[in-house]
Amino acid sequence: MSLxxxxxxxxxxxxxxxxFNTLNLNEVDSIALLESQSSDHPWSKNQLSESIxxxxxxxxxxxxxxxxIGFVIATPAVDTADILNIGINPKYQKKGYGKSxxxxxxxxLKYRIIKIILLEVSESNIQAIKFYLRLGFEKISVRKxxxxxxSNQLSERDDGIIMRLEI
Length: 167
Description:
The chain is α+β, with helices and mostly antiparallel strands. The protein contains 4 helices and 7 strands, in the order E-H-H-E-E-E-H-E-H-E-E.
């Protein structure tokens, strides 16, 4: 005798809400916490505040269900913009959120007639370099001994890789 058991389950879909917003000073604590989680050399609250206060900068957040999970700060000059800082909560990395944030940034920079985005990344940050290459950035230059490897060994330094993207 065999017994067949059939179960029916309902597909459960949990809607998520993603939003992009201009950063404001009320969010500095959230951004500083995210920065400390996602960076080996995090910016201070003061550095973040000054960058957000600078009205020339483009400073944007990515929120998931009302919680900030990423941010980017860029400074435009004529037809070029430099990425000053970017961070995604490590829990949400490699899930497309960083790419979404960059697409949003590119859209915002195009409104400002920006044609080129530049950034700099430590040569030891392989994950970030791969991410930027997937977005279409190309390596254009190297700054020798630009980044400290860690704060305990001030003499140990990494090269900075300068990357460029035409938009």
